[in-house]
Amino acid sequence: MEHSSSEFDVVLIEVARRVLAEGAKSVRLDDQEFPVRRTPSKNLRQVDFDFEGVTYRGIEQNPNTNSRWAQLARKGAKVMQFMQSGSYVAAVADGKITHYSSKKK
User: Fold this and answer.
1) What is the dihedral of CA 14, 18, 22, 25, to 10 degrees?
2) Model's pTM, two decimal places?
3) DSSP class of residue 101?
4) Measured CA distances, 56 to 50, 84, 96 (Å)
5) Is residue 20 part of a domain?
6) Mapping DSSP to helix (H, G, I), strand (E, B) and coil, where does residue 13 land?
7) Is residue 104 situated within a structural domain?
8) How many structural domains are present in the chain?
9) In what order do the strands lie in the sheet with 96-99?
């Protein structure tokens, strides 16, 4: 069953807000709790969570790269990238979501 995009957007924006703006140690979605961890090399915050049976990873944007998201992060924006099965699916910057093109029909 395909999830509604707006519901998915709400979840991604909420995860980014809790981790980056509130500094939450874990994120609760429905009845599940997902711990926020730090990446070993760059000490960036990340959280793995499930949405409608699919596992996603939200990872704090590294400001020390050359991407446009890193430029925003260097300027103080709170940026989180979201991946699913090793592919980036979306980014949230200061509460605004950008979807990457997907292979959906």
Assistant:
1) 170
2) 0.89
3) P
4) 6, 5, 18
5) yes
6) helix
7) no
8) 1
9) 26-29, 32-38, 45-51, 54-60, 79-84, 87-93, 96-99
